[in-house]
Amino acid sequence: MTHPTDPTASSTPYSPRFGIWALVHGSRAARQDPDEPYDASWLRNRALVLEAEHLGYDSVLVAQHTVNPHDGTSAQLEAWTAAAALAALTGRIEIIAAIKPKLYHPAVLAKLALGIEEISGGRFAINLVNAWNRPELERAGIAFGEHGDRYAYGHEWIRVVEPLLRGEAVTHAGEHFQLDGYRLAPAGQYRPRPRIYVGGESEPARALAAGQADVWFINGQPLADVQGLIADLRRRERGGRPALRYGLSAFVIARETDGAAQAEHARLHALAALDDPERARAQANIDPQAAMFATFAKSPRVGSNGGTAAGLVGSYDTVARRIAAFHAAGIGLFMLQFQPFEAEMRRFAAEVRPRVANYLE
Fold it and tell me: Rounded to a whole number, what is the distance in angstroms from the first to the last CA of the chain?
């Protein structure tokens, strides 16, 4: 079948792409910041994503939690209903919705994904994550499982989802799922299937990314560590699939000078310390085998999913130069966080992104 051009593909494939994290559970660095009151509402996220698209951002990642992972009581935006609504409201930006496999049967999830793919005109993607917050599942009566078991489940789950996304008839008899000639339509209207992102850095996560992903999401960390991770994945067999691409999560603090950026980093770090009691309670719910939390413990940071550990803190030129270095190492998509989000998102678009081209090789 001939497909129209993928509307989420860059017209200049060697240029970095930039995305934002939707504020599904409010502020990304500190929940008690007077410059950014807590707000995880649909109205705020709708305005945020529409503005991001207007500013030229390429993607938005909508993380999936059914309950707020910080305290279990604060507001939490639901990922898949929000993604469907964003698909109808936007016209260019890629919409990536995270998915924890145990929450949806693969046939149901594939149908949801194809629906949003149709609504968006071929701009939808899924981000497969295998969960780390135990109570979110267990309190709903869903078995959380051990780390290796969750990834085994995820492997089988995505092996069913992927051909369903292509519109293929799927017959599958596995440990967890049985399908008999199951087929979904419409499919393949804009490209062979929606894009698949995979997150996680443990060995099972890396194997899953090598075998099933189009893009592997790496949590924010120093350049040398990112280079090592990419080198490891590049050595792995892909089973005839196209070369794996790479994304990086990072929290950006950019100012006119390095000193001003460091001062703002110190301000946010002090505010984040106010959340320590809440963070300690949440820590007890974390799967100790989740590799990303060991990565986070290497150095002080601000923001989630590695945050400022990626080093995108400094003057406009410092941040642009570091982005170019990550891009040279293989990072194609930078999934960014800010605080206060809207103001700093605008600053990045106006001051940093235009400078990146000056440092690209």
Answer: 36
